[in-house]
Queue: 2 jobs
Job 1
Amino acid sequence: MKKFSKGFIVVCLLMATAGAYAQTACGKACQLKYDRCVATGGDTEECLMKYIACMDSCAAP
């Protein structure tokens, strides 16, 4: 797996949370899942990928 710089991760998080759907219940649930993933010692990149996938599912019709 590619290594991502912290700056890239921050940019991805900002882009993911900047969407209009980020304030929805689904978006908040994704944020909670991400926070829980990191808090339980999960790999930051893995948690980020799961977060982005979750946000993508929120945007799907």
Note: Residues 21-61 form one domain.
Job 2
Amino acid sequence: MTREAPPVTHSSWVWEIFHRDKKKQDFVALSSAKVEYVAATGASCQAIWLKRILEDMGELQTSVTEIFCDNKSAIAMAKNPVQQNRTKHIDIKYHFLRDVQAKGHIEMRYFPTEEQLADIFTKALPRDRFQFQRRMLGVTDKCIKEKY
């Protein structure tokens, strides 16, 4: 790690790969926005935890932590502190996301579905999509690399 403390990127799919206490959702999702909102809450908790670990090691983060989400409705719910009909059924513990966003600890940002890299870990992809995501992760095919 450099002394300049490069930005730390958290991706919930990376966390899920290594996290041993995975469990099923404790609610029935009525919308994809709710699922994404709850997932973003978990990601923000982990991002804050990682930020504190880095601070304990002397690496201060000077910029806001960005949480990328491909659901604009979930982002709108996180940014709006007013209780609305579409959020009244969400358990209050998940509104932690609103609090940390309002305090400036995290910032929800839209990230198009087509650019999400989690698909490579969760489903079979067409060859071109697989190669694109593999390239974005910085992974290369050894056989192809040796030819050039």
Note: The chain has a mean pLDDT of 75.
